[in-house]
C-alpha cells in the first residue's frame, strides 16, 4: 500500500487492494464516526445522512444477479454496489447534455 492520506485512509493501487483493507476496520471507522459526530462534522452528504434516504427494491432475473455477482467479484466489489454503479453510469450516459 502507498502512503496514507491525511484522513488516515491509505492510497490504494487497485480495487482489490482496497477491498482487502476494509475488513477489520470496523472499530476504527466507528471511532472516527463518533469523533466526527461529537464535533458536528456529519453533513448532508455523509454516510449517516445518506443512510436515511429512501430506497427502492428492484426485482431482477436470477441470471442477471448471478452475472452481476461474478463481475463484481472479479472487481473486488459487492454485487449491490456494482449494480448501483452500473445503473448510475447508464443513467448519466443517457442524460442529454445541457448547454447554455
Tally of distinct domains: 2
Stretches where pLDDT is under 50 for at least 5 consecutive residues are: none
Q: Compute the number of strand runs.
A: 0
Give the % helix. Answer: 40-55%
The geometry reads as: extended
For the residues shown, what is the average pLDDT? 79
Structural summary, described in words:
It is a single chain. With 100 residues, this protein is mainly α. The protein has two domains: 14-54, no CATH class; 58-100. The chain has helices at 15-21, 26-38, 47-51, 62-75, 79-93. It is extended. The termini are far apart.
Task: Using brief descriptors, characterize the structure shown.
extended, mainly alpha, 2 domains, 100 residues
Give the helices and strands, then pairings.
Elements: H1 15-21, H2 26-38, H3 47-51, H4 62-75, H5 79-93
Amino acid at each position: 500500500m502507498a502512503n496514507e492520506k491525511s484522513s488516515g485512509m491509505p492510497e490504494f493501487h487497485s480495487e482489490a487492494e482496497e477491498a482487502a483493507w476494509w475488513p477489520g476496520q470496523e472499530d476504527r471507522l466507528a471511532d472516527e464516526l463518533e469523533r466526527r459526530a461529537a464535533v458536528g462534522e456529519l453533513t448532508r452528504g455523509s454516510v449517516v445522512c445518506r443512510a436515511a434516504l429512501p430506497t427502492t427494491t428492484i426485482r431482477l432475473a436470477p441470471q442477471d444477479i448471478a452475472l452481476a455477482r461474478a463481475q463484481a467479484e472479479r472487481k473486488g466489489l459487492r454485487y449491490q454496489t456494482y449494480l448501483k454503479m452500473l445503473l448510475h453510469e447508464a443513467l448519466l450516459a443517457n442524460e442529454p447534455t445541457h448547454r447554455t
